[in-house]
Specification:
106 residues; Immunoglobulin-like; 4-stranded antiparallel sheet; 3-stranded antiparallel sheet
């Protein structure tokens, strides 16, 4: 849909043209969830897309503490050796979609 509006000014007519459009709908994606969050001894993920997902866990300083692929939904990830604090989990799906999540170890 196009819309034009004209404003009369002392120097003549000025036009303002713009086009209204709605964004294209993206397919709905299931979000990955982490539990328990906060947690202590283990971390589990649910909602991983099918295929080989790359999972990278970083500590607050950006150091990688885990890098893996083929992590299954609801499979436990051992975290007993990790320090307490906030971790950032980046999940990259086989289709290239990327999601970054925050997990807290108590």
């Amino acid at each position: 849909m196009s819309y034009s509006d004209y404003e009369i000014s002392p120097t003549g007519a000025l036009s303002c043209d713009f086009t209204l459009s709605s964004p294209t709908k993206e397919p709905s994606r299931k979000s990955v969830s982490l539990f328990p969050n906060p947690g202590s001894g283990e971390l589990r993920m649910n909602g991983l897309p099918p295929g080989n997902n790359k999972v990278q866990v970083r500590d607050p300083l950006g150091r990688t503490v885990l890098l893996g692929t083929r992590i299954a939904n609801d499979a436990p990830i051992e975290t007993t050796g990790w320090a307490k604090g906030t971790y950032f989990i980046e999940v990259t799906g086989a289709d290239g979609t990327r999601q970054v999540l925050r997990w807290v170890k108590e």
